[in-house]
Each structure stands twice: as structure tokens, then as C-alpha cells.
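User: Batch of two.

Assistant: Item 1 of 2:
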Amino acid sequence: MPKRTRFTTWRPLATAATAALMATLLTPAAADAARQPAPRESRPVHSYENAVREAVWVDTGLDGDRDGKADRVAVDIVRPREPALQGRKVPVIMDASPYYSCCGRGNESQKKTYDANGDVTRMPLYYDNYFVPRGYAFVGVDLAGTNRSDGCVDVGGRSDIQSAKAVVDWLNGRAKAYTTRTGTTRAKAAWTNGRTGMIGKSWDGTIANGVAATGVEGLKTIVPISAISSWYTTTSSRAPRSTTPAPNGCPTTSTAPTPGPSAPPCSRSSSTGPRARATGPRCGPSAITSGPRGRSRPASSSCTACRTSTCG
């Protein structure tokens, strides 16, 4: 019964979120239709199965792990193929999250899944398979220090916000991105008109709020769902010690009257595809292993400077 209740609550929120995004980010086809006496709506006219799936790494301009290199955040993209073949640019719906490789999203804790080449095959929730056929690109951003991104987890801080804002800048031609995590081949977002809407629940929604507060050009609307309004209340309540998993795989601990046992060390595992990815934070002495498109390099132990309760 609790699961059914959560789903029932989530469904009207998702419906409202969908309506808000689509009302703001009309695709070119819908915009043309709007000039005629016709409903302003998007319809599923594009193939989801034949969609373009790709990944880029956006330069955030930060060096959170202090390894002397600018941190790059991983951006997985699913976009309709037909508009690109017709020379039309599409708007973007974006969810920047720390949960894509650990806790997942939704009641089923869905995670990003990848093919052997490291391109995303499925995004969590319904966002890609709903919006892409309707003429939108869906962009899933791994926040700094999570999944396939560099840097450190910052729990709503500067790194979190800047790593998501940098993607909006890239979508509007103001930031650099690359086709691989460590390579030098540039990637351009020539397929989009830059009009971006951010959506997300909980932590993800809080990032949307933070990016909107920067006033970044190109972000047209946000739909934060049950977003966090106070990080202090969320992470520092004087309550029994919590063992809820953090995005990087380490248990979180809230401030408790009596100190409990220390959190176990962060763990990290990697897959074996061409873009093998490391899970866990970019902290500690363990090695981060990338695939043939990148190179292996040790993780910086200086992440201590930006560690939070999510990295024990």
C-alpha cells in the first residue's frame, strides 16, 4: 500500500510537470502549428527507437578534486533523429542528478543503463521515451563527483550548481564540451536551439532552483518537484544516525547527540566497456579507470578539502 500511495502522489505531479515544460518549450513544429488555429501541443511523431544517443563531457571551469585539471561532467543525450535530418533544432529537457549510478530515480530506483560503447540506452523514469518522440531532446547530467563525472560531491553547493549551469551554457554555445572524458576533440550542441527546461525531484529539483537563481541565459523554465528548501534541516537534524546511501555509494550520517561508529570507506567499482565508468566519489587514493577513449589516472586525495557528509 505505501508504494501505491507514493505512485498516486507522483502521477499528478508528473502530469503537471509535463504540461509546464511543454507549454514553455514548444518544439518548432508545435510553434508553427500555434500560428494557425490549432492546439498548442506536441505529439509523438518521432521514433524513440531510432533516436540519436550520445555522450559528451562539459568543462565546468572548476577543479574540485584539485588534480590540476578542469573537472568535466558527463552529459548523456537522447534526441530525435528526424529534426536533425531536416535541419531543425530542438529544445531540451534536462535533469541534473547525483543519483544516476547509485540510488536511482522513482519508486523502482531506475538507473542509467549503457550499451557496449558507453552510450545510454535507457534513462530513469519516463522522460526520454515520452519527450523525445514529441520533438524534445532529453539530457541527463551526472553532477560533479558522481557516476562518470569528475570533481567532488558538494551537496547543493557551488560545484553542484556550477556543473549543471555549465551544461546550459554549453547548450547555448558558451561553454566547451568534449567527446570523451579526457580527450581533446570538441563537441558542439548544433542540434539544439538552446531553449532549456530543468526538471527533477528532491535533490534534482533543488539543483534546478539553484541554476535558475544564477540567471543563466537559455534556461526558460524549471519544474522542481518536492525540492529541498533547507540543506541544514535535511542533512544536519539532531536525529538518530542515518545509514541512507548517499549518491556516491557511501552511507550518510546526520549529526547525532552521541557519536556513532564511523562510516565505512568509500567504495568504487568500474565496468568494462569502451567508456568504463567508476562509481563512487572522486575521493581517496583509489584509481579511477577509464576505457580506451580515456586513460587511467589516480584519484586525488585532496578531495578531503571539499568532502561533505556524503563522503565519510
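Item 2 of 2:
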Amino acid sequence: MFNRISIGGNPKKDANKEASKNSNFNQKNQFNSQKKGENKNTLSSLLQKRSNPEKSQDNSSGKPYKQAQNNNQSSNKNNSQKPQNNQSKQNDQNKNKKFQKHEEKQNQKNQDLTNRIEQGLVGSKFRMINEYLYTTDSKTSADHFAKNKEDFLLYHQGFQSQIVKWPEKPVDMIINELNSNQIFQNAVIADLGCGDGKIFEYFRDNNKLKSLDSSVKQGMKEVHSFDLCAHKDFIKVADSKNIPLKNSECDVVVFCLALMGTNYIEFLTEANRLLKLNGHLIISEVNSRITDMDLFIGMIECLGFKLQKKILPNTYFCFLTFKKLADNKLKLNSQILNQNKNFKTKYIAKFPKTKDQSDVLYISQSLLKPCIYKKR
């Protein structure tokens, strides 16, 4: 009727109960530990956020901490590499600038060398043409320049580079004489072997040419410029021994460093033809060309002139002014020299070895040497 009750109860049921209790207890403990861990994690995360917001931001986005740290390190590396890259770029730019400067200097040196070579060639050819003009007759030179105008231009280019070194320019002295001396007012001037035509240009630029004003004013000049070749509009081509002007048309004939050619004495007889009676012959020449000044002056006086003025402004040049006293109707032979026996006596004394004392061309050449530059 009554069930037997054991004090110990049913061992199977007790064991099951005990096991269920233990499992519940373990689950409870596990739940509590998880909760504590979560609390710890949340607390550490809060502390981490406060101490290092960048890391927490990286962790909150789902990136691991090490990866975030690596990213930070790489960004720091990039930031540290930026100034290094800038410095290397600056160094490259400096190197390029130095190279460019070096190249520019080298190019300038090369250009200077080229210019010196070209100037040397121009100077060399100028000396060749200069010697040619002094050692040939005017007709031969005229024929050459008629076919080779570039040689004439090159000669005058070289001549201009030479006169830069001179202490005083002869053409300026002549211009000053023509401009300031009262006897040359309203003069008709023939500039033979005019070169660049400086005399014409001076009076033109100062409104003292008759051709610029139809009304004749005091001090107005008429200037005719002649040379073997014309490189300016106002220059006329002519051999100085045969000028296309009428007899006795000029008041002044000028030879400024222009007694060039083995037959220069024919230029002087042509000047006598062009000049009016009492007209003036003006000569400027290199001193070193004249072997004997008195004999040179005496020879010109044999052609119908009389020396009026002799100026030696420096050791380089002389400045001679003659007046025409008579027409020269004699040919270029011994008759001209016989007009002045004093000259002939002095010449023979100076040049006793002269074989033919009647050769006027030879005598004239012995008194005025060619102006030849030293070969380099």
C-alpha cells in the first residue's frame, strides 16, 4: 500500500538532477564571465578611445589594430618621404640649371671663337685687298670691283674696323676745315676716293647742301662723291684719273687717304683739271707712306700747285692744302719735273741710283710708298 521511501532517494534521478544543476550553474557562470568580458572589453575600448582616438576609429571600422598601426606607419613614411622627394627634385633642378649655365658659357665661347675667326678672315682679306689697291693701277682695280662688288664692301668694312683705333680721323679734320674756313663757303667740292662719303653726309645732315635748298644761303656746299664702286645712292662710280665733271668746275678737290694706285700722280693732274684757278687741293695722307715730305710737296707743285698749309697733327697723318696757280697742260713725262729744277736736283741727291730720271710714274711711286699692313 505504501511506497517504500529510501532516505537516499533514487540514485538515477538524483544523479540527473545533480547533473542538470551543475550544467545550469556552469551556464550561469559562463554567461556571467561573458558578460564580465564584454564589460571589460567595453571599458578597455572606452579607455582606448580616449587615449588613442585614431586607433579606436580604425577598430570601430572593423580593421585590426596591427593593420591600422601599419597604415599609420606607412603614412608617416610617406610624409617623411615627401620632403626627401622635394629635396631630390630641388637638387635635380639645381643640377639642370648648372648644366644649362655651363652649356650657355660653352656656346658663348664657341660663338666668340667663331666671331674671332670671321673677324680674322675679314681682316686678312682686307689686308689683301688693301695691298692690291696700292700695288696696281686704278683701271685694273676699277675693273676688278666692277665684277666683284663684295670685295669693295668687305674692304670698307675692314677699313672701318681699323679707324676705330686711330687717335684722330683725317676725314673729320677735313670736314672741320671745309666747314669753318671762310674761303670754302658756297664751295663746289669733289671728294675723290670718298669711301663712305662722310663729307657729303656731314653737310647733308646739317642742311648745308645746295641740293637740299634751291635758295643759295651762306655756307651752302655742293658735294660730288666719287669712288671705284658705289655702295650708297649719292656716290658715283669713277676712276679718279677720269672724273665725269667739266674743266674748272670745282672750288675744292679732296683726297682723304685716297692716293691709292701706282698711277696716283694721274689723280693729281685730274684734280688740276677740275679745279678753278685759285681753287684748293686738300690731301690727307699717312705719314709713313711719304719717303721725303719736301720732295713729295715739290712734286705736287710741279703739277701747277703751291703749298698753302702743312699740318702734322700727330705722328700718323699729315694734312696738306695747295692752291692751283696754273693749268697743267703738260703730259706726264720729264717736262713736268723740268718745270722745277730745284726739285730735280733734290730728287737726284735723295735717290742717286735712279736709272731713268724722266720716268714720272717711277719717281712718284718712290716718294709715296704703298701702305701695306704687316702680315701676321
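The CA atoms of residues 241 and 267 lie 5 Å apart.
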